[in-house]
Design a protein that fits this description.
- Helices cover about 5% and strands about 45% of the residues.
- It is mostly beta strands.
- The protein folds into 2 domains: about 35-120, Immunoglobulin-like; about 135-215, Immunoglobulin-like (Sandwich), CATH 2.60.40.
- The strands form 5 sheets. Strands 5, 6, 8, 9 and 10 form a 5-stranded antiparallel beta sheet that branches. The chain has a 4-stranded antiparallel beta sheet with strand order 14-13-16-17.
- A hairpin with a 6-residue loop joins β1 (about 1-5) and β2.
- The relative contact order is 0.15.
Length: about 220
């Protein structure tokens, strides 16, 4: 959308042209996350709360690699909260999920689609729940689910994914630098630049990821 304005205080009136995003007042959902998918193929897609909140949110799930358009839709639903649970998806299939804000449906004011988040459902022949500590499959799912953002980080980083129980940060020598519990955000503004290991515990399972801290 183009907005025309005139500078009336200049010695000669000057036309000023401003280019505005037509969806400037409808914020795209961010920090898209997913729960650990159950072997009954139930998953919850979540995102950060937007303030002020839109009228509702729309979740769109497509086959992996497909564009987020209606003709490719595998599942779609609306939510007035910042998460939607999905079940009944095909077994052993990879999907991409997108979310957008619906700010004024009557006038067609919606945000762009969010960044995609990917997941894969379990096979039909392996549908017994396993969530015990040390279960390799549960750890693999957690590895795919959790992401560190931003990475590299400067002042803080966030774990994108389900709520975590504990986050531990180690230097390259293996010494624990800090530990936080029951939060997905960690302040690293006082740490030196370099490489660190982040050990994340969620739902009784653990995964370790690499983090880079820069100035």
């Amino acid at each position: 959308m183009t907005l025309l304005m005139f500078n009336l205080y200049a010695s000669k009136p000057t036309e000023v042209k401003l280019e505005l995003d037509s969806n400037f007042s409808c914020v795209v959902p961010s920090y898209i996350s997913k729960s650990t998918i159950s072997k009954k193929n139930t998953i919850t897609i979540g995102w950060d709360v937007i303030t002020p909140a839109p009228k509702k949110y729309e979740l769109l799930i497509v086959l992996k690699g497909k564009s987020p358009i209606i003709s490719n839709t595998v599942f779609t639903n609306f939510s007035y909260a910042n998460s939607i649970s999905v079940s009944g998806l095909n077994f052993d299939t990879s999907f991409d999920a997108y979310v957008r804000s619906i700010c004024d449906e009557k006038n067609g004011l919606v945000s762009s689609w969010s960044e995609k988040i990917q997941f894969k459902t379990f096979s039909l022949n392996n549908n017994t729940e396993k969530t015990s500590i040390g279960d390799d499959n549960a750890d693999r799912v957690l590895e795919d689910t959790l992401k560190i953002y931003p990475n590299p980080a400067t002042t803080k980083f966030r774990i994108q994914g389900p709520k975590v129980d504990k986050i531990e940060l180690f230097n390259i020598l293996g010494s624990k630098i800090l530990e936080v519990r029951n939060t997905n955000t960690v302040n690293v503004s006082n740490l030196n630049t370099g490489a660190y290991l982040v050990k994340i515990t969620a739902n009784g399972n653990k995964v370790t990821k690499k983090l880079i801290i820069t100035q």
